[in-house]
Amino acid sequence: MAGTLYLCATPIGNLEDITLRVLRTLKEADLIAAEDTRNSIRLLNHFNIKTPLTSYHEHNKYDKARELVEKLQNGVNIALVTDAGTPGISDPGEELVRQCYKAGIMVTSLPGAAACITALTLSGMSTRRFCFEAFLPADKKERKCILNELTNETRTIIVYEAPHRLLRTLEMLYEALGERRITVCRELTKRYETVFLSTFTEALLYYQENEPKGECVIVIEGRDRAQMVKEQQAQWEQLTIEAHMALYISKGMNRKEAMKEVARDRGISKRDVYAAVMK
Description:
single chain, alpha/beta, about 20% strand, elongated
């Protein structure tokens, strides 16, 4: 029988956050694949776990995933751990999971710590709807595209950042999104955990004077939906209804469809649109 891949969530700081199920699985697995074996060995030594380790990281994720899948096909049970938190979230684990499913290997996830969820619940922001962007891309064009997409995002936004890049990232987010309420969570679950509720302006002033330390999660207020609709309606109202209709007709809509869209954009009835056009 083929083995199983276990995605094992490990603590993001406080070692007491590991689950009993993860501890048992790490002990019983035939092999542990770790993003950084030097980091993971400290965790395993703390809990007296002797299971063999192998490295699986961003720079070997494709070739090593094929090697691990072959082991799984031969009946080896493998536990996957990341440096901290849940494997597969903003780390190479997603590639191994993809290859396992392609090969028909069973995958199961053992719930536990995740910095994004921990920060969200601490942020004081709306938690009903949120989007997770992890680390913003290093590539300038890709990053600009992502920031443009976030401009009209109404859900709470979660972004990861390293301390030495925090100030620059806050500047870029402020330039793209404008003033927003934000919460910067630092050193989550650790001794010097801080949760800084502020705005972009306040955070920029603070971190210009105080060098950030420790891994950070930035939680950003989504754009106000009602205000956004109001602004969009104001933009449409700069056009005459006839010009607004012509815009949609030029995109291939018939008059009935265009009339419906114009009414929705402007917050008026189709009857009002018809009356204006007939004039």
